[in-house]
Write a structure and sequence with these properties.
α7 packs parallel to α10. The relative contact order is 0.16. The protein is 42% helix and 20% strand.
């Protein structure tokens, strides 16, 4: 009887010192999926490096952004970018100062990011630019390379990891979950250059969504069970215009 009451009291006391006016989001995705690129593009008026604090498992960012008219008040936004390899680290190494106490979280939104094309690096450890990546994709079996990348994403985000994450991070404060499929621009270039045939699909967006249909459905089902707003997007994390609707939805609780 007393332990649940003590745990609840500990959570309440721990959260007393957390700034509640800050809108907090957690970004989760396999390394190389474009999370950092997303943050840098989405918050172009801010300096991500200047506002970043890092731990072994997370990069934490803090921004002031403005919605609507030029004279609208600035809004405080904080983002936790999980950069590890094990989803369990999100629970084990999540900072109470950012996420709130376990059992009384203060996270407002979660963004899951996957990519349909892998990130490749050169001999110096730097990511290949688009032209070099397209060349690598075109040399060999493109469909097999895409298939393998999609399989890697399913190994990372699946029913088990989703249950673990949402059970730990869920609270009445969690308003929105977004699922984003990244690197649609690379798929478009493969199609335009004749390397990829998607004639059985209406467009590249439908092609990308088809590969992640099961994952999207699993996330949507989990959100529905907890009355959390869910949406999905196909994007290029490098394109500001792609990200504007997603950012607005992410930071307004899906409204």
């Amino acid at each position: 009887v007393f332990k649940p009451l003590r745990d609840e009291l500990d959570s309440f006391i721990g959260n007393l010192f957390i700034e509640k006016t800050i809108y907090r989001s957690c970004i989760f995705g396999r390394p190389g999926s474009g999370k950092t690129t997303f943050i840098e593009t989405a918050f172009t008026l801010a300096d991500p490096d200047k506002n970043r604090k890092s731990t072994d498992a997370f990069d934490y960012y803090h921004f002031q952004i403005q919605f609507g008219l030029k004279n609208s008040p600035l809004r405080e936004v904080a983002i936790a970018d999980y950069k590890g390899q094990k989803p369990s680290q999100v629970i084990l190494e999540s900072s109470p100062e950012f996420f709130g106490a376990e059992g009384s979280r203060v996270i407002n939104a979660i963004l899951f990011i996957v990519d349909i094309v892998p990130r490749k690096i050169d001999e110096n450890g730097n990511p290949l630019n688009d032209e070099s990546l397209l060349k690598w994709l075109s040399e060999g079996n493109i469909l097999e390379k895409i298939k393998l990348r999609v399989q890697e994403q399913y190994q990372y985000i699946n029913e088990a990891s989703l249950e673990l994450l949402l059970t730990s991070l869920h609270s009445k404060n969690l308003k929105s979950v977004i699922f984003a499929i990244n690197k649609l621009d690379i798929i478009d270039k493969l199609i335009d250059r004749g390397y990829l045939d998607i004639s059985q699909f209406q467009n590249s967006k439908e092609y990308a969504e088809h590969h992640f249909e099961r994952m999207s459905n699993e996330i949507e089902r989990a959100c529905s069970d907890s009355n959390i707003d869910f949406s999905k997007s196909t994007i290029s994390a490098k394109k500001t215009d792609d990200l504007r609707p997603l950012i607005r939805r992410l930071l307004t609780g899906g409204n």
